[in-house]
Amino acid sequence: MMDILKGKNAVITGSRRGIGRAIVEAFANQGANIWACARKQDEAFIKDMKNIAEKNNVQIWPIFFDVTNETELKNAIQSIRSHKLPVDVLVNVAGIADDSTSFQMTQMDKMKHVFDVNFFAVTMLTQYVSRIMTRQNGGSIINISSIAGLDGTPAQYEYAASKAAILGGTKNLAREFAPFNIRVNCIAPGIIETDMGAQIDEQLKTEILSKVIMKRMGKPEEVANVSAFLASDMASYMTGQIIRVDGGI
């Protein structure tokens, strides 16, 4: 263990599974204490977080709220603030994709819901956490976008567009928060072995993988390791960056 995050405290959304859980594990392995955010409370998740914390001798505090519900989000922020600890890192992982294939036939309500989760919820949580970081005069914000936001995708217009919005928001906030020593960066994963990755249509998956020079899907921990680096002081001169973790496309 290098302990590049020792002494830091991080808020991580989407912690239950996939990339979010991998980031929790990577951060704990590097010495960070974590507020692990998930939507619904269950004992299996609490036990999982406890096991990761004990294994790495850190603190992990599970917090449950719907990222699109401002009342629940405010309560979560109050819970975080009650610890009276600095919030050094925010990692916005929680996101959704849907099963739409036709732009012309996708209902607007479905598109709006994807934007609510993938962009507006991220924006709202970042507003609240950045206020804490501004008072501290320091912090690191890491957004998880997608190569779909950079390159487009043959389907899922609303997913690609919402992830592109995160890219633009990252660039903007990096400029706005630089005077407060808050760094804002973004990771754009390619096709990753997660529940969301498993939902991709097989024909589309084959098409994407045909463009990947490493000829395989990525692993959640490969995204998590980049996130841990960006959160650490080793990346202290990096802000406003979009880091592709896509196996080479």
Task: Assign an overall shape.
Answer: globular
Pattern of helices and strands = EHEHEHEHEHHEHHHE
Mean of residue pLDDT? 94
Q: Taking strands numbered 1, 2, ... along the chain, how are they ordered across the largest sheet?
A: 3-2-1-4-5-6-7
CATH class: Alpha Beta
Can you describe what's shown?
Helix 1 (18-29) packs parallel to helix 2, helix 1 (18-29) packs across helix 9 and helix 3 (70-81) runs parallel beside helix 4 (108-136). The two termini are 31 Å apart. Helices cover 47% and strands 15% of the residues. It is of the alpha/beta class and 249 residues long. The model has no long low-confidence stretch (mean pLDDT 94). Strands 3-2-1-4-5-6-7 form a 7-stranded parallel beta sheet, sandwiched between helices. The protein has helices at residues 18-29, 43-56, 70-81, 108-136, 147-151, 157-177, 195-198, 202-209, 220-231, and strands at 9-12, 33-38, 60-64, 89-92, 139-144, 182-189, 242-245. The protein has a single domain (9-236), classed as 3-Layer(aba) Sandwich (Rossmann fold), CATH 3.40.50.720.
